[in-house]
Amino acid sequence: MDAGIMALITAPLVLFLIFVAPIWLILHYRSKKQVSQGLSAEEYAELKALAEKAEKMSDRIKTLESILDHEAPQWRDRA
Predict the structure, then answer these.
(1) pLDDT by residue (tens digit) across 8-55?
(2) Which of 2, 23, 24, 35 would you label with 53, given CA atoms 20 to 30 Å apart?
(3) Domain range annotation of the chain
(4) What transmembrane ranges does the database entry give (predicted)?
């Protein structure tokens, strides 16, 4: 190969290996560590609160359906 072409290939490769690759690896393994740690205490509390709200909403829907079943038995056939 020609020396000029070799320099054109070598310079970007060296810059990549010195600057980009280490930062890339650090960020990659840092994100892997965060994923493997699971939920934080704040995230767990938020998830628990959302689950409680969903349970309450489910109970309300069941109550509304039972009221509608009693007062308007054909409401499910509409729409």
Answers:
(1) 888 888 888 898 999 999 999 888 877 777 778 888 899 999 999 999
(2) 35
(3) 1-38, 39-79
(4) 6-27
| C-alpha–C-alpha distance, residues 39 and 3, integer Å | 54
What was the pLDDT predicted at 66?
A: 94
d(CA 22, CA 75): 64
Number of residues assigned to the chain? 79
Q: Are 27 and 35 in contact (CB under 8 A)?
A: no
Are the C-beta atoms of residues 58 and 50 closer than 8 Å to each other? no
* Three-point CA angle 54, 56, 59, nearest 5°: 110
